[in-house]
Amino acid sequence: MMACGNRCILRPDRMGVTRLVAGGLAILAIVSGGARAAEQGGEVVVQATVDSGDTAWVLISSALVMLMTPALAFFYGGLVRRKNMLSVLMQCLMILCLISLQWVVFGYSLAFGPDRGGWIGSLGWAFLRGVGMTPNADYAATVPHQVFMMFQMMFAVITPALIIGAFAERMKFSALCVFTLLWATFVYDPVAHWVWGVGGFMRQWGALDFAGGTVVHITAGMTALAAALVLGRRQGYPEGISPPHNLPLAVLGAGLLWFGWFGFNAGSALGSGGLAGSAFMCTHIAAATAGVTWALLDWYKHKKPTTLGMITGMVGGLVSITPAAGFVTPVGAICIGVGAGVIPWFSVTYIKAALGYDDTLDAFGVHGVGGIWGAIATGIFATKSVNPAGADGLLYGNPVLFWIQVKAAAVTIVYAFVVGFVLLKLVDALMKLRVGEHEERVGLDLTMHREAAYTVID
After folding, report:
1. Which helix (DSSP H) or strand (DSSP E) does residue 270 occupy?
2. 386-412 per-position pLDDT tens digit
3. What is the number of structural domains in the chain?
4. 92: nearest Cα among 27, 163, 31, 35
5. pLDDT digits (tens, 9 = 90+) for 267-301
6. Same domain assignment for residues 176 and 251
7. What is the CATH number of the domain that holds 321?
8. How far is 171 from 278, CA to CA, in rounded Å?
9. Domain that holds residue 336
10. Are both 261 and 363 inside the same structural domain?
11. Over the range 114-146, which residues count as b (16 or more CB within 10 Å of their CB) and which as e?
12. Per residue in 149-175, pLDDT tens?
């Protein structure tokens, strides 16, 4: 089979057999969603066309993923001290605006545009030139190219917002804006191309990342660790730091994240068929399993199950199932969920305390560690019985995939940490990353934005 633009052409060698097989493939393409078939001079041509059901599902999924950034703002905002609540909301919403523009101007082209050596896309699609209302069969054969672009935009938006959890309460707003644009350009866009872009070298390896375990969570998590190290601890950490100021708000944010994650993972099927349903189911199962696991571990250690622990576990389960959602069975999802409860819990509870870094809201502990576990677990539990376009993992007799997943995760870990560290140092040298002692003591709501989240009425 030879791909040519939006068309798949089957050239017959032995006319009878090949045309029979080609006809069957054409019928399958039509049934699976919106392809058009025709015979031209002994060739069967499958033409990609828009399918309204698939398009509707991806549009809805795009809206669900967009909701995740405000949901993250409430989740993080409820966990910080009240004097910094608005600063977190402002940071998340500004990232939503900034990265949306960056994505349209050149980000999408760098991530998904015509390949340049397996490392980056060209600027051929800058300002969405050539990104129209007809499908691009390389990425989504039944969905308009613009809709696919919008869906991917929401991933690009939430990824740098996740990093906020590592430096909440102590980064200057101006520095955040500059760093976010640089990070999206030099970390997110290249890694997205490596894993998802046509010609990307990790895609050529056969690395699997259904919805962003490597592209989203490992990149954000490793840069979060770099940010915690570069900015240093908050004043008074850990003894003088108060608990979350509004835990119910954090619970609401976590619930909305879970809701939006169905678009994140099930939407990555790019169609409204059985694969989307399977990814939806596995997403829910893993989150539920991890939430229970984390609560039980807290119960064992502290003699009480905690609300904060349970919602943290839920988010960890969502993180870890993300790369595997479209490749694993329900049993695989449960196993990944257990690991997502145990491994990040151990990192947050013991490793963070032992090493002494101030990852404010555990962005590295949950997203970085959970993303690494999810990427590796995909190499263990993936099976072609769920998704023939994927590969069998270690448990299904294919240790090669396990090695590929480990290798892809390792490359991303090093790249995201090193480049993130360099970018943080660069911005710090140019404009200083951290607020002053007075601003940090008073709080970023008043000192950065001249506003307060809560007013007291006499």
Report:
1. none
2. 999 999 999 999 999 999 999 999 999
3. 2
4. 163
5. 999 999 999 999 999 999 999 999 999 999 999 99
6. yes
7. 1.10.3430.10
8. 40
9. 52-442
10. yes
11. ebeeeebbeeebbeeeebeeebbbbbbbbbbbe
12. 999 999 999 999 999 999 999 999 999
